[in-house]
Amino acid sequence: MALENTCVEHEESDEFQMVCHGCSKELMLRGLEPLEEGQCPVCGASFIVPHKYGNFMLQDVIDDDIVITTYAATDLKLQREVFVKLIDKDYIDINSDFSKGLSIPLNKGVATVYSSEFVEEGMLLVSESIKGKTLGQVLANGDHMTQENIINLIEKVANSLSFASANGVNHGNLTPSSIWVTKNSEIKVADFFLRTNLCSAASSPDKIAKAVDVRYASPTKLKHLINDEKSDLYSLGIIMYQLFTRVLPFPAQYYHEAIQERQSISVQNPQILNPNIPDDIAEMIVSLMVQDGTYNSFSEIISFFKNRAKLKKPSPKKSPKAKGKKLQNKKPSIKPKAAKKSVRPSIVGKPNRQLDKLRKSLLITRIVAIMIICFTAIMFMSRYFPNSSVGKASEQFLSLTVDKVMGKELPKAENK
Description:
Blueprint: E1 8-11, E2 17-20, E3 26-27, E4 37-39, E5 46-48, E6 51-53, E7 56-64, E8 68-75, E9 80-88, H1 99-102, E10 113-119, E11 122-128, E12 132-134, H2 135-141, H3 147-166, E13 179-182, E14 187-189, H4 205-211, H5 219-224, H6 229-245, H7 255-264, H8 279-288, H9 298-312, H10 320-384, H11 389-406
Antiparallel strand pairs: 1-2, 2-3, 4-5, 6-7, 7-8, 8-9, 9-11, 10-11, 12-13, 13-14
Helix pairs in contact: 3-6, 3-9, 6-8, 10-11
């Protein structure tokens, strides 16, 4: 439990004076061991008994194994939260060189180591405090991770390891417990070159198995204790296999069994356990765990992910962003079209009525013209051909028409 999550306050004195956050009552710590968890007798709030160790106030145990214990602590001089790693003296060689872990330049993907010193109990390393979980905790808790999350995580890990390798430092014992996922979903790789100094070719198999997690170690690491980039790539392949399948390809935890597994068992395609793994990712995992694999450096892993992103990147037409922009550009033209559709019936109806009126007027004009032509012809025949039958008929028609217009009636014919 980190400092801000504890429910007690402490004051530096000969004896720790602790006050409960729940009820503000002073807590009696007699009979309680350092870092032991207790409860307030008044309100029942839990607390951790801090332990002053040199310039550090240790507050909680983050990780603990036979070799290394990691504490959440406060640096009392600099007033900052840190991780304090205490390495058992039985695994410390006086000639061990821990300087490589300190020589990596600052990088957001690499946990910063502030200092190291020999102490009575062994070796003390102080590094930055990380808020989050290790991949080991994620796997142990059964937390769900999507394929895209795993791929994104592995890409960030490869970037961190590539950066360290470019500065002459290999990890040496890459495991899920050395990879942190922060609360901001960032990745930090810790413990560079830490366990590589805890054993040598002369070390017993039992000591090697305790110093190094053999489940993630490469065959060359197990046989010859070689710490190179190829060994870290192998470890990354096993971590990828476990993240995608939740199964370890080589689960043996003892040195000789681990070597025998590597020699007798071939790497199984992870798609057998998880058919949803993309083909290219499955090929990468297998390639990382074979002797003559495709990948020889983390820069090649980074190139793989970059090329994969380019191939997977949707075209501008299919891209959601491009599609959104396209729709935004079309909005001004869509609105007028919709407006036209809404008024179309009235616009179309009006020209139809006008056309009908025009047709009627043309018809009337034609009729009138025909009548005028006929009347003119009749007048012409009656005047210039009065003695002809057509002229006499025309004259008679004109007289009848004039009489009708004037309101006169023709005299009735007498009956003989």
